[in-house]
Amino acid sequence: MATSIEKNFGDEYFRQLPQFGDSLGELLTFFGVKRTYGVGGDFVANLINALAPHIDVLPSSNEMHAGFSACAQAELNPLGVCMTTYTVGSLPCISAAALARTEGLPVVFISGAPGENEVNSHALHHSVHPHTAWNTDLDAALNAFRALGIRAERLQGRRHSGQPNIAAEQCLQLLTYAYLNRQPVFIEIPRDLIFQPTQSLCLPDHLTQLAKVQQLNLSGAELIAKEIETKLNKADFPLVFLGEKLRLNTDLLAKIITFCRKQGLPYATSWFGKGMLDESDPLCLGSYNGVFSELDGQVYIESVADYVLELGTAISPSDTNNAFGSQTHAVDSHPNKTMLKGTSRWEQDISVVMDRLQSSRLAPNKPFCEPKADVESSNPKSEMLGYHNLASTINLAQRELAKPYIFVPEVGSALFASFELDTLGSDIGRSYLANPWYAAMGTSLPYARAIADQLAETDSSQPILVLTGDGGFNFQANELISLQKQGANVTIIYMRNNIFHLGKAGDAPVYACNHQEFDPRLLIKAYAGHGHLCETTGQLMDSLAQSAARGGLHLIEVPTSIDTEYQSEITKKLNTYIGFRNGVAEAISAWNNLCGHRESCH
Predict the structure, then answer these.
(1) pLDDT, tens digit, for every residue of 2-29?
(2) How many CA atoms lie within 13 A of 470 on its CB side?
(3) Contact call for residues 337 and 301 (beta carbons, < 8 A)
């Protein structure tokens, strides 16, 4: 016999039940979410209205960009959130989902879905259903996200008239999974659930209590600390090498840096960890990646260090982050090394060992002083600009700014030139955010959006500097409208050569990414921005100073030669590597010479 919730459990219980939309808003707020990025649509309209009183529901120019902005948000917050409509909105987020999956980012992809009362034998609009099909596929998006190894669920309405639905509890479990495991999740929400009563939740007083549910159950930390203590005491020239897993664990990173400063231990990071350290610290040697590195501390890392303490590097190393398998990554092959990968949740095992080391009896380390190269004398202001001197010019300009830049490089030659940039202090904890070659071109402007929102939240005027080639810029120029609406303080350095040059292996039309008549400075004016043309290092330094002082949106066009002498050293090496992998005879010889050992260079 059918009954109602109030008859089954009483009026008092029924009156305290929240609508699911409000419960979701409170859940997101509990996880520290203050904004979501997305695109509207009919299946998500109810959800937008329900969330608006709780968080800012911000528009993106398309769904893929919304996903990329959420990825950047997750680099800086407990969760990133993207919200779209059913299938036609959620499926374009797959590239961003792949990025989040690979980078270990807690991004919540939320999609509206048909109401449970709408599902029947008829095909619904937005469903993947050709007119010749016998069966309607309502799970296409769920299956696509699952194919990436992402936990994907559709929330469930009530199954009995006398029971409230469990959608809020189901959602809490998914958000908790994303937060604790640093992994993306995909949630489809039937639109008729939004205004239905759902079970009340009893949340902890603070988000950090969720992480305490599962404590470290491993033993032996004191033995590991003792081994490290012994090796540090024997070493004359130790090195602490910090991996990319520490990017999302700011407390542990701070603990390690405090220990290094106390003991006078020099430290460096991997390429994928760039931006999490203030490279102006005298103990910081920069971002290292074997033969591809261009940094002052390289000699110490490769030829001087007699013991390496490696913390928080990836369980399965990536070729991009490990000198492309060239066997030239000195940290990988160092004969005297202790590795603490961080195999427990939130690297609790590293944290416990560091706590033990803090109280260890370590011999005083020899004072460390690594001389920094003086780039000013080799960078006259009349020198023609190119990727070869882009980073050194920006480094000089940055010295004169009231606040240093937060760098956002685009995939391509700009990304590899950017590894030579000096990343300094940041008001949001990170001074460099990039998609390290995993997802696709077109992430830098969506990333800049999320960074600008984060800076605005802290009332910071720190400038953002986007570095992009013309090909990468054309992937995402429609996101300029969002930066204009934000009033974001963003300067875009637009390296112009009208071609996809990184990895270019011929003259096919597919490499032509631009038209000679295209004028990006006119385009930026359409978005109330300011355009500049710079051909020399001096002009770029002046334009950077002007744009930082004026604020707002700026685009600096830099005509860029594709001749080898104008490429950054890292890009020249990378192009050689790509040619080597493609079997080009000249590149094979050049790559073997670069590696310095013909037989073992892979």
Answers:
(1) 678 777 877 787 788 889 999 999 999 9
(2) 25
(3) no
